[in-house]
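ok so I'm stuck.
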Amino acid sequence: MTESLWIAGAGGVGREALDTALAAGVPVAGFLDDRAHGGTVRGLPVLAPDRLPAGARYLVGIADPAVRRRLAALLDGLGGAATTLVHPRALIAPETELGPGCLVMGGAYVSSGVRLGAHSQVHYNATVGHDSVLGERVTVYPGGNVSGSVLLEDDTTVGSNAVVLQGRKVGRGAFVGAAAVVTRDVAADTVVVGTPARQLRRSDAR
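replied:
not stuck anymore, here's the structure
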């Protein structure tokens, strides 16, 4: 029998991670959450993150990359094993690599020759084109479309229904707003919105 998984984060993405686990037949032991510990969510116990059993498998189900980074470091330090979770209705093409702790939700399509760094997330109905490289803790929100040969550096976020065109680079910590269309490279630690995407402000991703 597969060893049970602990999901760090009992909010929206954490519950969607639970849905993914249930669909994939992966048993879940419970949640890890600073705010909700001591209670239950969806009938499962919630512990403080520092109570992760030694050697247990975990997945961070939180959208914020900074929080994801902090929790992954904590859980790794406790001897946890980051585990990748893929919904059975997601499609992962050949020659694609998923790092530890990745979450790929139902309806997502990840094309061939793609690399997803550790703790990255591709949400439901999002797509990632061929030969793209996603760094660590990258998030592609529902309906986001990342074209081929795109580089998304660590801690970047592509908003719901946003589009990143072929061959573009989105710098570390940048945030692409919902429905934006990225037609040129995006600088690190910025927020871009609109069509074509333009810089709105600096981000606080780090």
